[in-house]
Amino acid sequence: MNPRSTAWIAAVGLAVCAGRSAAQGTPSTELSPELRAACDTMVAVFRRLGAAAVERSDGQTRNPLTRADEPGCRIEARGDVRVLPQPQLPENVLVTSLGWPQDPRYAADGDFGANTAVAHRHVLCFVDSRWNGETDGGVPDLPRSWYRIKVRCLLDSRGTPPRHAPSVTPRDTGPGQRAPVQ
Predict the structure, then answer these.
(1) Which of 26, 35, 90, 127 shows its CA 20 to 30 Å from the CA of 55?
(2) Contact (CB, 8 A) for 28 and 70
(3) Residue 17 lies in a domain
């Protein structure tokens, strides 16, 4: 067989396979403009709040509701809780600074951690916050009084909550301290 013929057949075969893969719905990692803007805003807020480190990656992101991989962004921020405005917990500082409604269906908290979600237009961002106090905490690989917040933002396929959705309630007095809810 002629080497040129072999190369041509290989090139056509690769093109056909690539076309078939695209036609079969290979997942896209391209972010919509709205999703990209929400992720950019999240990073900017972390930096404005004085996070010591902010890392972002775009691509396939696991949706915690459907367990499917979807286009989205993952953001992780770490920093000293003593730099944050007091008396608020790290996730509350983030939510308040964003000004986006909190979706109460995804809110949960514990002694040194909390989960919530915030919605902005057609984007839903899941926030997982952990922190350490002066003597103990929930993040063994971080120094005392530091926090780690992980965020996953995805397009909200099930619809965003109403605009009047409750936001953060000021019931937290500081990292590791809780005041009674009234």
Answers:
(1) 26
(2) no
(3) no
Q: Write the CB contacts of 122 (distance below 8 Å, at least 6 apart in sequence).
A: 34, 155, 156, 160
Where in the sequence is the domain holding 154, given as residue range(s)? Answer: 29-178
Helix-helix angle 90-98:33-48, to 10 degrees: 120
Domain total of the chain: 1
How far apart (Å, rounded) are the C-alpha atoms in residues 112 and 137? 6
Q: Which residues contact 47 (CB under 8 A, 6 or more apart)?
A: 54
* Of 36, 105, 108, 103, the residue nearest 75 (C-alpha): 36
Which is it for strands 177-178 and 172-174: parallel, antiparallel or unpaired? antiparallel
For the chain of 182 residues, list the mean pLDDT of each consecutive stretch of 10. 44 37 49 95 95 96 90 96 82 92 88 92 94 85 92 81 43 42 33
What integer pLDDT is reported at residue 88 of this predicted model? 78
CA neighbours closer than 13 Å in the CB half-sphere of residue 37: 8
95 in any annotated domain = yes
Asked if residue 21 is part of any domain, the answer here is no
The tens digit of pLDDT for each residue in 46-62 reads 999 999 999 999 999 99
